[in-house]
Amino acid sequence: VVHTYAGICIEKLLTVKDKNGHGQSAPRYDPASMRASLLQVVPPVLQIIAASKGIPMNEYLMRCIARIFSFLKQQGAETGLQTLRPLSAILIAMAANPSNPVFNHNLFEAIASIVKVCVPSQPDAVEAALLPSLGQILERNVADFLPYTFQILGLLLDATPSVKPLYQELFARLLSPDLWRSQANVPGLIRLFRAYFTRHAVFGELLRGHLQGILERFQFVLCNRKTESSAFELLNAMYLHLPLEFYQQHYKTLLTVMLTRLQSSKSPRLQRDFVVSCSLFVHRHPSNVFPAMLGEIQAGLLSNLLGSIWLTVTKMTLRLDERKVCTLALGKLMAVEEVRRNPQLMTGCCAGLVSLMGLVQPQNTLTAEDGSDDEAPPMDGGAGL
């Protein structure tokens, strides 16, 4: 019990913040000055956890480990790398009977904190410590650990200089419908696919061969209101990291699927995600592609879409990065002849630009409750890093 309180104390102390001279909150303690003291704590805490002394699967001690490495960052990189192997051993032991979800969550948080610090400089060493245990989790299909495993693999794949066979072998399995039916898996799967997209020079053949399956998973996730925002995260990752030729032949079908979903749901959040995602596409690719695709679906669709949905979204509360990409995209669309010849629409677009640039107060603020018009039940509970 005493070491549990000690772990809680350390974890809380590292979160303490004070106001600085500019009135901003800043951590009270400096990682460089705390490094030696904190790293001395790690080995005995790991020994207590591994030996199940006191409280078995002590979630507070594991949270303490996670907090130490997230606080120290680069200051704890060397010790963090040495800590991965004992954490990996604990991970395999827990995989046999994952009965404490809070402990397991903190375990993966600790691993993720170390991976983020160590993998940029020592990716091979990190992979050597983790890939065997992650491979076992995938082989055993440990459902409670899969969401975390996908996210850790995404971090590793982003940084590894040489792609290991595991990533090639895993790709087709990631498209299994059973994995996507679990809501808990979706963020991790999308995170991992984003890593595949960024390495398209290596995985080009795999991606081209399975793109139809990827877009089918997009449609599956889009059709559930609990995961529809995640569907656009997958799409945005594709726009950001894949060349247009990878998916251009599928883009008309993709737009049709999104427009059909918009017709069946009046959710402001869905409208926002759609407009932001399409804005990203317009910004990243030649300005004629998006209007031409809409014209193939239905004549005059661009004008209808701008007037009925797009300009409404410009008046919503958006993040700064969303406002920027929507501003750039709307400017490009205003140069399209169909829009230029419509004075009323051009006036609306100008008003939209004014809103996006923050020159007037947004009229609509989205809340977490928006988008509850179609009552699809949640598929599963879950967690993610």
From TrEMBL:
<dbReference type="GO" id="GO:0005635">
    <property type="term" value="C:nuclear envelope"/>
</dbReference>
<dbReference type="InterPro" id="IPR016024">
    <property type="entry name" value="ARM-type_fold"/>
</dbReference>
<dbReference type="Pfam" id="PF03378">
    <property type="entry name" value="CAS_CSE1"/>
</dbReference>
<dbReference type="GO" id="GO:0006611">
    <property type="term" value="P:protein export from nucleus"/>
</dbReference>
<feature type="domain" description="Exportin-2 C-terminal">
    <location>
        <begin position="11"/>
        <end position="368"/>
    </location>
</feature>
<dbReference type="GO" id="GO:0006606">
    <property type="term" value="P:protein import into nucleus"/>
</dbReference>
<dbReference type="GO" id="GO:0031267">
    <property type="term" value="F:small GTPase binding"/>
</dbReference>
<protein>
    <recommendedName>
        <fullName>Exportin-2 C-terminal domain-containing protein</fullName>
    </recommendedName>
</protein>
<dbReference type="GO" id="GO:0005829">
    <property type="term" value="C:cytosol"/>
</dbReference>
<dbReference type="InterPro" id="IPR005043">
    <property type="entry name" value="XPO2_C"/>
</dbReference>
<dbReference type="InterPro" id="IPR011989">
    <property type="entry name" value="ARM-like"/>
</dbReference>
<dbReference type="GO" id="GO:0005049">
    <property type="term" value="F:nuclear export signal receptor activity"/>
</dbReference>
<feature type="region of interest" description="Disordered">
    <location>
        <begin position="366"/>
        <end position="385"/>
    </location>
</feature>
